[in-house]
């Protein structure tokens, strides 16, 4: 199912304008993070925060600030939800506090660094991604009265990569483009599962290699070339940013 269909299904009760902007700015955060675009101008939570603010307004008042109208000062405006006595603490306190964090986190970041300071762009981006996912899960949980684990499961489903040439069947995955070599099949499968780690034996089964020893050499080669990270002790494999770039730029997802 396409991501847009997932949003329509999950947020069917939400006004279309809110749903579409929630989808747009949430997936933009995820996309920029996975592409290593961590600069404040590229990955920030301000627009996502403003959409969620409007969703809280809609949920509590059945109306919301029109898009195009500024919500300022943002952090002060968030305090209005504390007075919504008929709603959960998540609506009144938890979500607004998280919005305040990611809305202002990138201010003055990446501007001046001296000495041995660690550039905060990556750390900030990680925080924004996970806080945004938590907020989205909370919204799903509130709208559908779901458990926390079920709501987070839906979020992870939304952020899964859509790859037409990867087919999931009988608890296995298959690459439908039979012209790809085993290296590329491996990278495509890892890409489809990112950021999850996949066991080497599962990969060997999924690419339908007949010899596990020979396939291990393929894994080692990809590791040496930094397209993947291979942990020998656990036999876990995960695709690297370099591997992601190769898949997105060099492999045709159609079959």
Architecture overview:
- This protein is mainly α and 255 residues long.
- It has 2 domains: 3-159; 166-250, Orthogonal Bundle (Arc Repressor Mutant, subunit A).
- The protein has 11 helices and 5 strands; from the N terminus they run αααααααββαβααββα.
- The chain has helices at residues 3-10, 16-34, 46-61, 74-78, 89-104, 121-144, 148-159, 182-193, 200-206, 212-224, 241-250, and strands at residues 166-169, 172-175, 198-199, 228-231, 236-239.
- The strands form 2 sheets. A 3-stranded antiparallel sheet has the order 3-5-4. A two-stranded antiparallel sheet has the order 1-2.
- A hairpin with a 2-residue loop joins strand 1 (166-169) and strand 2.
- Helix 2 runs antiparallel to helix 6 (121-144), helix 5 (89-104) packs antiparallel against helix 6 and helix 6 (121-144) crosses helix 7.
- The two termini are 18 Å apart.
């Amino acid at each position: 199912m396409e991501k847009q269909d997932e949003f329509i299904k999950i947020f069917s009760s939400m006004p279309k304008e809110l749903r579409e902007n929630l989808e747009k700015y949430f997936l933009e955060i995820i996309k920029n993070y996975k592409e290593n675009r961590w600069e404040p101008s590229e990955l920030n939570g301000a627009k996502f925060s403003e959409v969620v603010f409007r969703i809280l307004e809609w949920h509590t008042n059945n109306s919301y600030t029109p898009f195009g109208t500024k919500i300022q000062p943002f952090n002060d405006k968030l305090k209005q939800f504390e007075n919504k006595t008929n709603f959960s603490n998540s609506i009144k306190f938890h979500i607004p506090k998280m919005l305040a964090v990611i809305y202002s986190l990138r201010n003055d970041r990446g501007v001046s660094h001296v000495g041995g300071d660690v550039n905060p762009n990556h750390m900030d981006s990680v925080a924004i991604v996970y806080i945004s996912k938590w907020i989205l899960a909370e919204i799903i949980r509130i709208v559908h009265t779901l458990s926390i684990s079920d709501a987070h499961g839906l979020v992870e489903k939304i952020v899964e990569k859509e790859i037409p040439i990867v087919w999931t069947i009988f608890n296995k995955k298959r690459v439908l483009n039979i012209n790809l070599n085993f290296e590329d099949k491996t990278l495509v499968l890892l890409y489809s599962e990112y950021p999850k780690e996949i066991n080497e034996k599962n990969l060997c089964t999924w690419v339908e290699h007949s010899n596990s020893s020979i396939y291990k050499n393929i894994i080692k080669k990809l590791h040496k070339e930094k397209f993947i990270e291979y942990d020998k002790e656990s036999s876990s494999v995960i695709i690297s940013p370099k591997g992601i770039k190769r898949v997105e730029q060099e492999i045709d997802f159609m079959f």
